[in-house]
Design brief:
single chain, alpha+beta, Cyt_P450_E_grp-I, Cytochrome p450, Cyt_P450_sf, heme
Length: about 260
């Protein structure tokens, strides 16, 4: 088992999550797994998947579906906990309390905050390579021969055109509430990629983020914990990103206690 996990290091190293690690090992080596899981399906003979194939698929899901959402929330909550950003938390609180029980689609400020967080801090900053079809293609007046490898990355896409994203390094949720230029902002929003190969878990990821933000900021205000001096700059891990010092400590205080 150890050698199998060692080989998987070529795909990327996830954080040490014991239950997830055990699921990967169980799924790859024939251990007990629930019948309703994808792991159970992959072990069916008709798919012809060996231990390495199954473990690799599990690792892909771990990297893409767990760490990315957690990192996005970490960076976003840290950002809106900084001095001068209290108004964002207050607006979230007011929107939640004024609209209890409504669907997330009816909470425009929450949508704007989540989208701005994913724009400024894309969980997967790496390039997403694609191969030009054999017949070639013309893109924006440039001819690309067939077989050419092309790629772009969310981090750059979200900063390259200041006509679309003025002050691109600034965290401004309000930009997503303006109708003017919204179509172009959405076109260049590349956190989950676009098209047929876009992230299949994007709706789940956004729902998870919105649920946690609602549950926290409807009741609490967050601020950096006393003594929190760890470096929170983005550390590119090739596939994902994370805080450079891998530490983010926030202080939670109930809104009622702050009156």
């Amino acid at each position: 088992m150890g050698s199998l996990m060692g080989k998987l290091g070529v795909f990327g190293k996830s954080r040490d999550i014991p239950r997830t690690r055990q699921l990967i090992l169980d799924g790859a080596t024939g251990g007990p797994v629930a019948d309703f899981t994808l792991v159970s399906r992959m072990r069916e003979d008709k798919f012809g998947m060996g231990p390495m194939d199954i473990a690799s698929e599990c690792m892909d899901h771990t990297l893409a579906g767990i760490e990315t959402t957690g990192d996005a929330l970490c960076f976003l909550m840290w950002q809106i906990s900084q001095p001068g950003y209290e108004i964002i938390q207050e607006r979230l609180r007011d929107e939640f309390r004024a609209n209890e029980g409504v669907s997330f689609e009816q909470l425009p400020y929450l949508e704007a905050v989540v989208k701005e967080g994913l724009r400024v801090f894309p969980s997967i900053p790496m390039s997403l390579p694609r191969c030009v079809p054999p017949e070639g293609a013309s893109v924006d007046g440039h001819w690309l021969p067939g077989g050419t490898l092309v790629s772009c990355q969310p981090y750059s896409m979200h900063r390259m055109d200041e006509a679309v994203f003025p002050e691109p390094d600034s965290f401004k949720p309000e930009r997503w509430l303006e109708e003017k230029g919204l179509a172009e902002r959405n076109r260049l929003f590349f956190t989950f990629s676009n098209g047929g190969r876009a992230c299949i878990g994007r709706h789940l990821a956004v729902a998870e983020m919105k649920t946690l933000l609602r549950d926290i900021y409807s009741s609490f205000k967050t601020t950096p914990a006393e003594g929190m001096v760890a470096d929170m700059s983005m550390d590119d891990q090739i596939f994902t990103s994370r805080p450079k010092d891998q530490k983010c400590i926030l202080r939670f205080a109930r809104w009622e206690e702050l009156v």
